Amino acid sequence: MISRSGPLFGVEKGGALELPYEPWWQEGLFFSCIGCGRCCRGEPGSVWLSPGELEAIAEYFGMESEAFRKGFVVERRGRMSLRERPNWDCVMYQGESARCGIYSVRPLQCRLFPFWPSILRTRRGWVERSSECPGMDRGRFWSADEIAALLAKSPFPDL
C-alpha cells in the first residue's frame, strides 16, 4: 500500500485514504473527457514521467529510451517532464486532430486529470479549472470512493 502525506495528500490508514481536509466532493463529481485537448495546450506546465512511462512511450514510437529522452523530455525540478512547444502545447498534442499522440500510453498524470490533489483540495480549485475544461461538471458521475482511489494513485504530491 502506498502512503503519502502533505498538504494535498492524505495518508492511507487501514485501506482508506485519510485527507488533511474535509473532502468537499464527498457527494461525488461529474466528469467525462470530451477530447477537446484543452488540458494539453495553451499554458505552461509539466507532464511528469516515471521511468516506466518513458520506456512505454519510447516503445510506442519504436525508439530507444535514451533517444526518446533526448528528443522529447526535459528535466524540471529534478523530474522528467515531456517537452512543450513554444506556444506551451504538450509536444505530444496533435493540433490537426486535437488529440494526444500517445493517448494509449499517456502518463498517469494525464490519465488522472482532473482528479489531481491540487484541483480537488478546494471547491474553488475545481470551479476555476472547470471554467477551462468543458468535461467537468457533466458526464459520468464519480463517487467519493472512486475519487479517493484516484487521489491515492497520484504519483506526485504537487500534482
Short description:
This protein is of the alpha+beta class.
Task: Looking at this protein, list some descriptive labels.
159 residues; 9 strands; 3-stranded antiparallel beta sheet; disordered N terminus; two-stranded antiparallel sheet; alpha+beta
Sheet bearing the most strands, described? 3 strands, antiparallel
Instruction: Report the mean per-residue pLDDT as an integer.
Output: 87
**Helical amount:** 25-40%
Structural class by sheet pairing and helices: alpha+beta
Structure, described:
The chain is α+β, with helices and mostly antiparallel strands and 159 residues long. The chain has one domain (11-153). 29% of the residues lie in helices and 19% in strands. The protein has six helices and nine strands, in the order ββββααββββαααβα. The longest helix has 11 residues, at 51-61. The radius of gyration is 16 Å and the shape is globular. The two termini are 20 Å apart.
SSE diagram, text form:
Elements: E1 11-13, E2 16-18, E3 29-31, E4 48-49, H1 51-61, H2 65-72, E5 73-76, E6 79-82, E7 93-94, E8 99-100, H3 108-112, H4 117-120, H5 123-130, E9 136-142, H6 144-153
Antiparallel strand pairs: 1-2, 3-9, 4-6, 5-6, 7-8
Helix pairs in contact: 1-2
